[in-house]
Amino acid sequence: TLLYTIKFESKMSIIFPVVLFAIVISLLSVYCLLNIHLYIKRRRYKDITRPPLKPGLLWILGHLSTIGPRINPDTSFTALMWEISKEVNDYIFVLFFLNRNYLLILEASKPSRILTNHKVFLKMGGKQDNMAYINGTRVFGERGMVTEVGSDLWYHKRKTMDAAFHKNSLKSLLGQMNDIGLKLSLYLNQLESKEGLDIYQIFNRVALETICRCGFNLSEDLIFSEDNLLADAFHHIFYAAQLQFQCSLKFMLPWCFRQEKKALHEHVTMVRTSLARRLNDKIDQQKRGQDMKDMLDYIIKGNFYDGKLHAEDVLDDFFVFVVAGMETTAITMSLVIFYMLKNTDICAKLRAEVDQVFGDKDTLTMEDTYQLGYLEQCIKETLRIHPPAQATVRVNWNEDANVDGLNIPQGTYTIMSQEVIHRRADIWPEPMKFDPDRFGKDAPKIQPFTFMPFMAGTRSCIGKHFAMLEMKIMLSRMIKDFKFVDPSPELAEIPMKTVVTAKPKDGVKVSLIERA
Predict the structure, then answer these.
(1) How far apart are CA 279 and CA 300, in angstroms?
(2) CA atoms 240, 246, 249, 253: torsion sign
(3) Of 72, 227, 257, 473, most Cβ neighbours within 10 A?
(4) Contact between 338 and 197 (Cβ < 8 Å)
(5) How far apart are CA 286 and CA 266, in angstroms?
(6) What does the radius of gyration of the chain's CA atoms come to, in whole angstroms?
(7) Positions of E strands within 74-219
(8) Entry pTM
(9) How far is CA 414 from the centre of its chain?
(10) DSSP code for 52
(11) Greatest CA separation found in the chain?
(12) Helical (H) or strand (E) element with 193
């Protein structure tokens, strides 16, 4: 036994160093191969400006080691990109994050070439899109209108669904929008206290009810029911998206945010189940030969491909339209109110226009909405300063590209920030000044791709005309029925936070006085 023990220990004394040596060599080999791989990938961008990289082991992380610590829940993407642009003294620069390479473009000429070249520059697509799945829970899915990479399927969907937003289709929704505007006025009138209201939260419910009723004939009472299950579900979904966006690495750990992830799964399941019931009702109506009456009819038609209906894809697009129709319009309407509070002359001019258009009527026709020109200018100026989406991403997955002399290697994530472009002083003088006259009839012509609140090119927002009509109806109704009082005159600028969209950090407070 003693002899056996001695032989075993002798063998181990030889084997252990050999194994340890093999592990060290393997790790060094992996490290060297990774460095070579990253060097070859990053060298393709040698002619593009970039911030300096840290040497040594941190070089592998790329700019994650230098820019990562500057990102926190209160970080503005726009402010950070603008700051880096000033540091490198260029509007076009590249950032390396591990194995991904991001090209930042903060000027207007090149986005016009990229956003219109839909065969080369595609969306991220599938599971790479953070809203396709959140913690494994299907939200927008891989083939939705927002997340689909840009295949023939997407063009089939877009062509089919465009009809839902045609002028004649929108005209048929005007009665419902007027009804919701009146309902909003009734809700505000019956409140015991009209002081310090968070109009952003109210507009969230208004926008959600508008898209549910006008788009999908869902008779949800969301304006009066402040604790409605559907509105509460979307709140939890947005909160989970916020956590994933702001705490991406921590969010991936199974033991972190367990309650939030559970709530996300429950609320997404509840919403998709509700939408599935509405879908089944709609399919039954179509089988009975009923005509198209809402967006869901077009969504169903757009998802009929390969000779069959893809029900889960229908729910994805259904989900997209509800979320997009709620969030972006609520943000913009509340910010228009904020700027009215801070600019009494603009508020007076708006009130005079609204009173003239309404006259002795209580609802608006489509022709009336065309006469709300100054209100549209105010909405556009709000969208210029605060576009709900701060940036968009395209990837040239299949080939290298050259855009006006700028070589973009295959697989580059190209980020274009409309918010930065909207705030460049050489394009928009005094960019942070709220000036609706920039969009007036006598204003200088706006150059293409310098104003992109609904994005631009082939994949511009399909619902932009729906959103503009809705905002005109709701805002004009409030201006007609109420005077606005600023409860926070000391607040010169509205604090914003970036989640999926840029929204008011602490809401938008307003006090209302009913007009005689």
Answers:
(1) 8
(2) negative
(3) 473
(4) no
(5) 30
(6) 27
(7) 92-97, 100-105, 133-134, 137-138, 197-198
(8) 0.89
(9) 17
(10) P
(11) 110
(12) none
